[in-house]
Automatic annotation (TrEMBL):
The keyword Aminoacyl-tRNA synthetase applies. It comes from Sphaerochaeta associata. The keyword Ligase applies. Residues 42-185 form the Methionyl/Leucyl tRNA synthetase domain. Its EC number is 6.1.1.4. It is found in: Cytoplasm. The lineage of its organism: Bacteria, Pseudomonadati, Spirochaetota, Spirochaetia, Spirochaetales. This is Leucine--tRNA ligase.
Length: 838
């Protein structure tokens, strides 16, 4: 068996593409807009661990699509770069003293080499790294545009703080109360920070989701994160004072059931509401709740806590005096930070009322006793005066009208979305280009002084006090004010890692422009991104932040489309098999033995283990290293296997046996071309049909990113070719073209061997003839008295008389008809003829 020399082939063609700049792309004005495509991958963070198998999955998918589009006459932009600011390099610097720049650049080298070893058709002339000053100069410039537009402001409200990372975090970076990066429980800390007014774009961010072709799940996550809520703001007079307490409610219809009020511990009126006798209790309570995270405070399972303020409010609809409590299940950051509590119809209020023995009044006819449990569904209103008899929706409208008439309330809209906490108290990020001047206030660094370089430091340790390591460098911090020239100090916070990825897709369009972040012509030539592929974990982080910046740039007239990414696809996760004991604990793969097919036992104990699907992890020793796979089976096998595993969007377990199967398939193709004589002849009718069916299916499936089924069809064709001894040239060439996007190295090699001197990547995609792709021959069944007596193949759509005549001429039927009388003739077109005889 001849060995398939993938190693030489792959090295040869990677060098060829590099030398010939095969995938460098320019803005050719003669190509119309609909024949241009911008296909984007989520760029990687160059971690020390190198590429993992998840990266090539998305990258292969986009690469196949790009190569396919090029062969179909498209001008394709397909760039790659590195998201190279970020905490891991900095944490490594703290541990080892290696500067983050050195680590990052070494990692980038490695990543680039690994990515190149997979033969992706990137235009490497456009490579960018977010940590390079040529790049972050423009990240800083965009920040200044936001600052000048009033979209960046300094804030002192408590923020999420990770004690381990020693930095503030955005709400989006807090997952179930923990730091998204390190898992430490997030606490609240009062530090000065820079915040971006993403909330100003809440409505646009929500509305424009309807205009993009994205997975519904991602749109839903963004909608929920933005969390638009429609309700009413209602004013409650504070008894014995001229002040009002304003609440936000989605259930104005339940006002007659509001039996108490609650304000958040941070509410500005707390001090004023607290009566002398309650002072000590309130202060103790405020202190205790300050130590809790939002999650602990709002967790439904947690016991409700609170303290009475000593004050009362007047319920505007019935003038009843109701107590005002302070409780931390009400968040200061939502609505007005105060609520009217309706314990009969809200679970949290009900729990609170039970605990503190507050009255519970039913205002919707309930199917339960509201003294025993809250009724949160709809019902006819009761105990509600002018609302009695109305359902929820009508009652809300009636109450709103009443409130507006009496000037006690109005319609209101609220969002869950909070402004984006944008500053980090860390070293390895873009310095925020602002200067604090005692005379002029906070001013932006002038454009001609950008980039504001990140200074070299000797210690990367964050202070933990809320200042970045930059604060320790006096020569850097002390500067002169760009406005008045007086002594001033630089802002020492840095930007979060998300900043660089908010606009990188724009820099690829014009990576070397020293005058602008992107030229208007190039932006208009390519944008928006036609296809964006990446992991689902970015649904509300990167993808929301990038949309926000893009919309700001759009409003400034700096980009031409309101949305950056027209179509988005989330690749599924590549998981792995793991082995589980009866007690559900997992056994590292190297301690497992396959006794017989699909029977796995733990080596040490002999316990039979169940094979389950799990995330790849170091501890389970089931991490697949792409470098090893490539060196053992080749990049083409790796590419094709990852596409053959299943639909792009679903998560699927890695199985090396599957990879070997794909490798064998490629080996079979290689040998086919080695062993078969290739002749300039027309293929047989049958082969020609298989060929055209294959072209049709591969074209369709590649265009719709259904790569796994396209590969299956190519396998069908190759099997057919193994049945014949000589290979018609047109069939051989077509097969190579179809393989081109999938296994570009092998395909280029075979293309060259077929006598071509130019790269396959510029060849035209094969076309199919529709008639040849439909089955024209069908099997016709001939029956006598309902019993099948003969079969024959006939052209599809043959008329009744013709098939009947054929049946009567059929030799096998002759003996059954002889001497009989035909009483009936039944013909079902394209199916059967039944002759009834006596
Ligand atoms: C009275 C009421 C009666 C409510 C009822 C609900 C059910 P969404 O839909 O998420 O916007 N609320 C308002 N501000 C709050 C805050 N800062 N912290 C905690 N809860 C707050 O939720 C709006 C509802 O959440 C509001 O409507 C309010 O309770 C509560 F049968 O008012 B409702
Ligand atoms: Zn000044």
């Amino acid at each position: 068996m001849s060995k398939y020399p993938f190693h030489e082939i792959e090295t040869k063609w990677q060098r060829y593409w590099d030398e010939h700049q095969s995938f460098a792309v320019t803005e050719d004005p003669s190509i119309p807009k609909e024949k241009r495509a911008y296909v984007l991958d989520m760029f990687p963070y160059p971690s020390g661990a190198g590429l993992h198998v998840g990266h090539p999955e998305g990258y292969t998918a986009t690469d196949i699509y790009c190569r396919f589009l090029r062969m179909n006459g498209y001008n394709v932009l397909h760039p790659m770069g590195f998201d190279s600011f970020g905490l891991p390099a900095e944490n490594y610097a703290i541990k080892t003293g290696t500067p983050p720049r050195a680590t990052t650049e070494k990692n980038i080298e490695n990543f680039r080499k690994q990515i190149k070893s997979l033969g992706f058709s990137y235009d490497w002339n456009r490579e960018i790294s977010t940590h390079s000053s040529d790049y972050y100069r423009w990240t800083q410039w965009i920040f200044i545009q936001l600052f000048n537009k009033g979209l960046a402001y300094e804030s002192h409200t408590p923020i999420n703080w990770c004690e381990a990372c020693k930095t503030g975090l955005a709400n989006e970076e807090v997952k179930e109360g923990k730091c998204e990066r390190c898992g430490t429980t997030v606490v609240r800390k009062n530090i000065r920070q820079w915040v971006l007014k993403i909330t100003e774009y809440a409505d646009k961010l929500l509305a424009d989701l309807d205009s993009v072709d994205w997975p519904e799940s991602v749109k839903l996550m963004q909608r929920n994160w933005i969390g638009r809520s429609e309700g009413a703001s209602v004013l409650f007079k504070i008894d014995g004072s001229n002040e009002h307490l304003e609440v936000y409610t989605t259930r104005a219809d339940t006002l007659f059931g509001a039996t108490y009020m609650v304000v958040a511990p941070e509410h500005p009126l707390v001090a004023q509401l607290t009566k002398t006798g309650q002072k000590e209790a309130v202060e103790a309570y405020l202190e205790a709740s300050a130590r809790k995270s939002d999650l602990e405070r709002t967790d439904l399972a947690k016991d409700k806590t609170g303290v009475f303020s000593g004050s009362y409010a007047i319920n505007p609809v019935n003038n009843k005096r109701i107590p005002i409590w302070i409780a931390d299940y009400v968040l200061i950051s939502y609505g007005t930070g105060a609520i009217m509590a309706v314990p009969a119809h809200d679970t949290r209020d009900w729990e609170f009322a039970k605990k503190f023995e507050l009255p519970i009044i039913e205002v919707l006819k309930s199917e339960v006793d509201v003294q025993n449990q809250a009724w949160t569904e709809d019902g006819v209103h009761v105990n509600s005066d002018f609302l009695d008899g109305l359902n929820k929706e009508d009652a809300i409208n009636a109450m709103l009208a009443w409130l507006e008439k009496h000037k006690l309330g109005s319609k209101a809209v609220n969002y869950k979305l909070r402004d984006w906490i944008f500053s980090r108290q860390r070293y390895w990020g873009e310095p925020i280009p602002l200067v604090h001047c005692p005379t002029c206030g906070t001013v932006a660094v002038p454009e001609d002084q950008l980039p504001l370089l990140l200074p070299e430091v000797s210690s990367y340790e964050p202070s933990g006090t809320g200042e970045s390591p930059l604060a320790k460098i006096d020569e850097w911090v002390n500067c002169s004010c760009p406005v008045c020239g007086g002594k001033a100090k630089r802002e020492t916070n840095t930007m979060p890692q998300w900043a660089g990825s908010c606009w990188y897709y724009l820099r690829y369009l014009d990576p070397n422009n020293t005058k602008q972040f992107v030229s208007a012509e190039k932006e208009a030539y390519w944008m928006p991104v036609d296809l964006y592929v990446g992991g689902a974990e970015h649904a509300v982080l990167h993808l929301l932040y990038a949309r926000f910046w893009h919309k700001v740039l759009f409003d400034l007239g700096l980009v031409s489309t309101p949305e950056p990414f027209k179509r988005l696809i989330n690749q599924g996760m590549i998981t792995s098999y793991a082995f589980q004991r009866k007690d559900k604990s997992l056994v590292p793969t190297d301690m497992v033995e396959e006794k017989e097919t699909d029977v796995f036992v733990e080596k040490a104990t002999g316990e039979v283990l169940e094979r389950v699907i799990a995330k790849m992890s170091k501890s389970l020793k089931n991490v697949i290293n792409p470098d090893e796979i490539i060196s053992e089976y080749g990049a083409d096998s790796m590419r094709m296997y990852e596409m053959f595993m299943g639909p792009l969007e679903v998560s699927k377990p890695w199985a090396t046996t599957g990879l070997v199967g794909v490798y064998r398939f490629l080996d079979r193709i290689y040998r086919l071309f080695e062993e078969r004589v290739i002749v300039d002849e027309e293929p047989s009718d049958e082969l020609n049909r298989t060929l055209h069916k294959t072209i049709k299916k591969v074209t369709w499936d590649t265009n719709t990113l259904n790569f796994n089924t396209a590969i299956s069809q190519m396998m069908v064709l190759v099997n057919e070719l193994y049945k014949i001894d000589v290979l018609p040239k047109v069939v051989a060439e077509t097969l190579v073209k179809l393989l081109g996007p999938y296994v570009p190295h092998l395909a280029e090699e075979l293309w060259e061997r077929l006598g071509h001197s130019t790269s396959l990547s510029t060849a035209a995609w094969p076309q199919f003839v529709e008639e040849l792709t439909v089955d024209n021959q069908i099997e016709m069944v001939f029956q006598i008295n309902g019993k099948v007596r003969s079969k024959t193949t006939v052209p599809k759509g043959l008329g009744k008389d013709e098939v009947l005549a054929m049946a009567k001429r059929d030799e096998k039927l002759a003996s059954w008809l002889e001497g009989k009388t035909i009483v009936k003739e039944i013909v079902v077109v394209d199916k059967l003829v039944n002759i009834v005889v006596k």
